[in-house]
Amino acid sequence: MKPVPFSHNIADTLQLASKALNTDGSKIIAGGQSIGPMLNLRLVRPTTLIGVTRLEELQKIHIIGDTLSIGAAVTHARIEDGIDGVDLPPMMRHVARSIAYRAVRNKGTLGGSLAHADPAADWVTTMTALDAQLVIRDARGKSRREPMASFMRGAYRTGLQQDECITAVEMPVAMGQALWGYDKICRKVGEFADAIGAIVIHPDLKYARVVVGATEDAPLLLPDMAREIARTATAPSLGDIDSTLATYLPGASRVKRQLLKTALSRAIAKVIPS
Amino acid sequence: MNATVTPSVAKQPVSLIVNNMPETVHVTPRTTLAEILRDHLDLTGTHLGCEQGVCGACTVMVDGRPERACLTFAVSCEGAAVETVEGFKGDDLMDRLRAAFHRNHALQCGFCTPGMLATARDLVERLDTADEVRIRNELSGNLCRCTGYVGIVNSIMQVIEERRACGLPCTGTPRLDRAPPTGFAPFDADIFKQPSAPAVSSGTMTVENGWSVVKREVAINHSSDTVWAHFSDLDAVAACLPGAKLAQHDDSTFEGHISVAFGPIAAKFEGEGTYKTDDSTRIGTVSGRGKDRGGQSAVEGELSYTVRRAQGNPDASVVDVGFRFRIQGILGQFNRPELVNGFVDYILGEFVANCDSVLSGGELRYNKGISAFTMIRVIIAGKLRALFQRS
Ligand SMILES: Cc1cc2nc3c(=O)[nH]c(=O)nc-3n(C[C@H](O)[C@H](O)[C@H](O)COP(=O)(O)OP(=O)(O)OC[C@H]3O[C@@H](n4cnc5c(N)ncnc54)[C@H](O)[C@@H]3O)c2cc1C
Ligand code: FES
Ligand code: FES
Known about the structure:
Chain B: Pfam families: COXG, Fer2, Fer2_2. The complex is a heterodimer of chains A (274) and B (391). In chain A, 32% of the residues lie in helices and 25% in strands. Chain A has helices at residues 14-21, 35-40, 76-81, 90-97, 102-105, 110-116, 122-129, 148-151, 223-232, 238-248, 254-269; strands at 7-10, 26-29, 48-51, 61-64, 67-71, 133-137, 143-147, 152-154, 157-158, 165-172, 179-185, 195-202, 207-213, 220-221. Chain A is globular. The N and C termini of chain A lie far apart (52 Å). With 391 residues, chain B is α+β, with helices and mostly antiparallel strands. Chain B has three domains: 11-81, Ubiquitin-like (UB roll), CATH 3.10.20; 90-164, DNA polymerase, domain 1 (Orthogonal Bundle); 198-387, Alpha-D-Glucose-1,6-Bisphosphate, Chain A, domain 4 (2-Layer Sandwich). Chain B is 28% helix and 27% strand. The longest helix of chain B is centred in the C-terminal third of the chain and has 23 residues, at 337-359. At the A-B interface, strand 1, helix 1, helix 2, strand 3 and helix 3 of A face strand 4, helix 3, strand 10, helix 8 and helix 9 of B. The site of one FE2/S2 (inorganic) cluster (FES) has 12 residues of chain B, from loops.
């Protein structure tokens, strides 16, 4: 199907982009790899699209002090290749490669994926596991920061207001040295996940986080399991994982729980030898 | 940014370089790169299969990298260098690939071939060595219904070897090697607790013969007399329902629409239905059907509600809500109970808040449309996911 008629502006300053966002029916387009299919299906019917990928600020990858900052419009492919002169956490490069297909990765962006907030998307779980913060700017030019762990409110729901744009994603540079495991289960390579398990451990930072994704909701943290793994440096048994998941996700089907259990135990096994 | 902020959906010139030739096309912003190539430049080698980014048939090179031509819109093509299957003149790797495809019977009907060649060329250029598993993984974004991929994979492997034999370097970055797990010394972690999730709703949602059936019990802080008076007045009910607008009604039939606008997604169901209320049992029933013209979906459903007095509190009441509906068309992938539940609770929450407010003599909170967590986006999630999964 052809999308509904819309006007399309390529923003070259962030102020103008945010201003345009204040008009009814306007919508940001980054890589267009999520909004594009929706336009073609006429599920989205905007009056105006505002392209943000040419904004220099959204393209930068740099280190400020001990913070790594990745522009919202950095593509999955750039993260996969890691050739921007700044070391990215190996976990990010690994995850980027498993997102969709190269032609999609060449255009799809980190910020677009987080803003879209598909529960089964890879970055929402990964960025929660890595304790990332989003830098968000509104039409008046005011910036605020929101941790990824609370930014996503539910399936396709985020803390973004109509006139807000994600400009960057930040995390401690030290996350690059963290121990990590990530496992994504899907039927065909490159598609959205049926289950995701992720673990990030950083003893020096006293940091331990265990997350499951693709639950039809925001990525789910398992804080007690994380504490226990850090305290004992041993992997929980499959039975422990199962009962934890049953407590946190009472409504999940047996199939979903089995998939999540498998993904999480595989992720943990990448950190803790059996 | 373009000088004007007012929507300009008129045709505008877009200049790009296609197969080394400068071209200017006059198209509306919604025109995709695939259409520019096929309909305006007669380069029909770029095929359209899914228009969702899934099948890869439309894959072309943009500024030297494969991209989906079905997901790229006109304005963002300004200044781009596009190479299609009709091009690649004098391109050594593409010449070798074409020969290899021919040699290995890597095509039958040829529908996938233009996109397949673009992806293949990218792989040949990026991959250091011919790794069959990796090549097969990378090809999962290009669907071929005919060949079984064997010839295609062999062609790519052979051309990678040819490229290496000529001493041409690859352009891709090496894969990340992972060391085996090392473990770590135990430590006491500072644990972050996620803000607790909203309470689980009281009620059920099931799918029966393609109909979604939702049951809810809703508390309203007014006496059952007041609530029933409100609920037996169709105008009052419609006014409290987010996005609903009655065009006209008599004692038993109505016409109107309900708009759902959620983030980027918008649908407006226009239709008609019947309603009746029974003062003796305090049961109301509404049934109706509607069509979303723009999105080509249809919804039909029945709503029933029973108003009763809350136990132990004459100033409060309980409404038992039962809702049966089904959606057909693009928005029809509506059988994921966990997603529907969230949506229904959101709508009911807004509706009850509006009722409470009106019954207390206050104002409607708003009635612009459903603007937060909603069905449509959620359905699309199912729909798109299903598309990705089916392929
Ligand atoms: C065939 C296919 C397979 C896919 N498989 C996967 C997969 O396996 N895993 C996965 O994680 N993803 C997958 N995706 C999604 C892909 O990663 C998208 O690129 C990504 O989710 C969205 O990024 P985008 O830049 O394309 O955003 P767009 O589509 O341009 O935008 C998406 C949404 O975010 C908003 N937005 C974009 N940028 C910003 C910003 N800076 N600030 C505020 N709002 C913004 C837009 O308004 C829009 O609502 C797949 C996509 C396709 C087409
Ligand atoms: S038509 Fe573009 S990917 Fe299928
Ligand atoms: S040759 Fe027919 S689809 Fe690939």
